[in-house]
Structures are given as structure tokens and as C-alpha cells.
Amino acid sequence: MNEDFEVKGPHDELLEGGGEAHGSHASKHGRSLNSRLAVMTALMATLAAMLSYEASVTLGEAIMLKNEAAIKKTEASDQWNFYQAKSSKQNLAELAAKLTSGQDREDSKTEAARYAAEKTEIKLTAEKYEQMSHEANELSEQFLHAHHRWATGTTALQIAISLAAITLLTRRIWLQYASLTCAAVGAALGVLAWLGR
User: Fold this and answer.
1) pLDDT tens for residues 18-67?
2) Cα separation, 181 vs 185, whole angstroms
3) pLDDT in tens, 97-128
4) What end-to-end distance do the CA atoms of the chain give, in Å?
5) 3-state secondary structure string across 129-183
6) Runs of H (alpha helix) within the chain
């Protein structure tokens, strides 16, 4: 008769719960680390999702404002072209006033004065559009700066989540601290973006 003997190693005893105080302590420590990492990762993922949302919103605003700035710049350009056309007509009317006499001269002077008045109004409109374009550009830059803060914060939190996963696999506590550091950097960038810095 062949009798089979089962030899149990410390690992088997630990898995079956028959380990000694040391095995029990290691098991509790492992569960504690797992729990901490799970909560930490969930919090980081939530914060990363919020920062990512804000990054998307600010990027959308920046793009819309940049588009608005381009539209206003085009409208200003149209007004300046219109201004140039009125200038040309004014110059021709002034030339006609110099080359003619009588009623034609008076009509040409009246026309030149009308074009000069129209030019003044067109110039004000063109300058208004240029100012609006400039303001939209500046606001777009502010939103773009905030977008970069939100996006960088999101990236730092994603790195923190990756480090937390590696910590779970390797059980290296220093990686947990590295993960927390990255998470703190990500959160700080989010606060700066929220404050508009």
C-alpha cells in the first residue's frame, strides 16, 4: 500500500487560516493595505473625473471664444475695407470739386463731406469690432490656461492611480507615498485652475 503524505508549507497554512501570529499579522496588514489602496484609488479616480470634466469644459470655452475673436476680426476687416472704399470715393469727390465749378463743384463738396462723415462712423464700428476681437482672444487665453491646469491635474491623478495599482501588486509602501504625492500635485493643480491661477 502506498500512502500519500501531504506536506503543507507556510504559504498553505496561511491560506487555510492556520498560520501563526506572524502569518495572521501579515494577512491583516495585506487586507489593510488593500482597503487603503482601494479607498485611495476610488477618491483619486473621482477627483480625476471631475478635473477631466472641467478640462473639457474650459477647452470648449477657449475654442468658442477663439472662434468669436476670429469672427469679430473678420467683421473689423470688412469695416476697414468699407472705410477704404469710402476714402477712395471721398478723394474722388474732392478731386472733382477741384476740377469743376458751379453746381458740380458744390455737389462734389457735399459728396466729399458725406463720405467723410460716413468714414467716421465706419471707423468707430471697425474699432469696436477690433476691441471685441481682442477681448475674446484674451478671454480665450485665460480659458486655455485653465484647461492646461485641469488637464495636467488629471494626468497627475492618473499617474497616482497607476502607482497605487503597482503598490497593490508589489506591496512597496514607498510607491504608496509616491502615489499620494502625485495625487496631491493633481489636486493642487485643480485648486489653482479653480481659483483661476
Assistant:
1) 444 444 555 565 577 788 888 888 999 999 999 999 999 999 999 999 99
2) 6
3) 888 888 888 888 899 899 999 999 999 999 99
4) 82
5) HHHHHHHHHHHHHHHHHHHHHHHHHHHHHHHHHHHHHHHHHHCCHHHHHHHHHHH
6) 10-16, 21-99, 102-170, 173-195
